[in-house]
Design brief:
Shape: globular
Distance between the termini: 79 Å
Helix content: 40-55%
Number of helices: 16
Largest sheet: 3 strands, antiparallel
Strand order of the largest sheet: 3-4-5
Number of strands: 10
Order of helices and strands: HHHHHHHHHEEHHEHEEHHEEHEEEH
Length: 481
């Protein structure tokens, strides 16, 4: 069939597109719902969007396969004597012209397509099946770039093989935004391949700097490349300062308040109304607004028995050395958070009164990692603690009845038909949309901590959470020795 088959297939696709466009316009041969045409059209458009996402992913897989096959065929036709570099440039140029891509973009597309087709079979199959987008596939390519074949396969299996020894739970990879998946893949890679994180961190610290970049409309960017804990603490402090200035007479948005507070702190001007220093000078950020960070670090890593990376809430894995420095130099208090050594998940805590304690808020942050609404990345300290089943309706203040939505999605829950679904001690709530669709929240990828040599518990031994553990006694010696 050859070219005729290709031409017919694309003619059929164009005809199908015309049908779908008519349906989206509400001009199909029959309504989605005879009883309520408008509601039926709205629900039908969601079906069209869901199908379009899958088809777009399938087309991305098709483009990748066609590009790789073309490159291999072109190299074979050119023969073994053709200069390799010149032939690669010619192939990339042809693909760039066909897809209307620049030379650099065409080369990047071809390189990523080759990696998918040759070394990431699960990702490529999921892309062709429409379960992953091209952006998800690129994230997998990037996060496996420094791994050997076995390690790359293990990362793939964790997220894409439900029969893997430790499959990712919660929202399927293809149903979360690609940037969220990239962060989760990076976390897995850093935890399982931490051998180079200290070296890379040291290089990053040496490269710290502040940059100025002009922009349009009389504006410019002033950005700083800092250690993750410093940058996150600064962001959280700006957020707290901006939040404290909000009120009925404040017309500025949160992004504007953050920007104004940052500028005034850097330039040494008086702080905005409501933000004064302890000495009354009003210069810079208020000393009463503390920069807060939450670090989850295994006690054996903290005491130097292992080099397991710690988790900086709102950022991801950090070197064990950074965690030790944070704890040794800046921590004023600790919460005794017990984790299940079988899977690393925090254990349930509860409370019988309405008020949510500071410790419980920290626990919620560890359980959820961010606002649990699908796709939201808000992990700031001012997320709300929200009762899923209202206190007035008999709901408790236990972890299993709490979520931590950001302000925007907290309002969405109470002003629209969006409702959270039940949570558990280890899983945040999902969400039910006004159309009845259920969306699963992301879950933290808890894993058992690394045990120091010689102290691996025997299989079947029950965990002992009574009194002070050996690890906690070691922590006491580390902090107060």
């Amino acid at each position: 069939m050859g070219k005729a088959a290709v031409a017919k297939a694309y003619a059929d696709i164009r005809a199908a597109l015309a049908v779908l466009q008519a349906e989206a316009d509400g001009a199909g041969p029959e309504a989605f719902s005879a009883s309520d045409p408008l509601a039926g059209l709205a629900d039908g458009c969601l079906d069209i969007l869901a199908g379009a996402r899958e088809v777009e992913a399938g087309f991305a897989g098709l483009k990748a396969k066609a590009a790789v096959t073309y490159a291999e065929s072109a190299h074979a036709v050119a023969g073994p004597d053709a200069p390799v570099q010149a032939q690669e440039m010619a192939v990339a140029a042809e693909i760039g012209c066909v897809l209307a891509l620049g030379p650099r973009a065409a080369s990047s597309f071809l390189a990523a397509s080759h990696v998918l087709a040759t070394t990431l079979p699960r990702t490529f199959a999921a892309l062709e099946a429409g379960a992953l987008s091209w952006q998800h596939a690129l994230a997998m390519v990037d996060e496996t770039a420094s791994l050997d074949a076995a390690s790359a396969g293990a990362l793939e299996a964790h997220f894409l093989d439900p029969d893997a020894p430790d499959p990712a739970r919660g929202c399927p990879v293809g149903q979360m935004p690609a940037h969220r998946f990239r962060g989760k893949a990076r976390t897995w890679r850093e935890r399982h391949h931490a051998e180079s994180i200290e070296i890379r961190h040291a290089k990053g610290v040496a490269d710290r700097r502040v940059e100025f970049r002009p922009d349009d409309n009389g504006m410019a960017w002033l950005s700083a490349y800092l250690r993750a804990d410093q940058a996150l603490a600064g962001w959280n402090r700006l957020t707290a300062a901006a939040r404290s200035m909000q009120g009925p007479d404040e017309h500025r948005s949160m992004p504007q308040l953050r920007a104004d507070t940052f500028a005034e702190a850097v330039l040494g001007n008086r702080s905005p109304a409501g933000v004064t220093d302890a000495d009354g000078s009003g210069a810079g950020l208020s000393s009463r607004i503390r920069a807060q960070v939450l670090v989850t670090v295994p006690v054996s890593s903290l005491t130097g028995q292992t080099d397991e990376p710690a988790m900086l809430d709102g950022y991801g894995p950090i070197p064990a050395s950074m965690a030790r420095q944070l704890v040794a130099n800046g921590a004023h208090s600790f919460y005794r958070v017990l984790v299940d050594p079988r899977d690393g998940a925090p254990l349930e805590i509860g409370r019988t009164s309405y008020r949510v304690t500071k410790a419980m808020r920290a626990w919620l942050r560890m359980r959820d990692g961010k606002c649990p609404f699908p796709g939201c990345s808000n992990n700031s300290l001012d997320n709300d603690a929200d009762h899923i089943l209202a206190w007035a309706n008999g709901g408790t203040t236990g972890i299993s009845n709490l979520g931590q939505p950001c302000r925007k999605h907290h309002r969405l829950r109470h002003t629209t038909g969006w409702t959270p679904t039940p949570a558990s001690k280890h899983e945040p709530p999902g969400w039910l949309s006004p159309t009845g669709r259920h969306y699963i929240s992301e879950l933290q990828d808890w894993e058992p901590p690394w045990w120091p040599p010689g102290v691996q518990p025997q299989a079947g031994d029950p965990p002992d959470f009574t009194g002070q553990s050996l690890g906690e006694r070691a922590l006491e010696r580390f902090l107060h020795g």
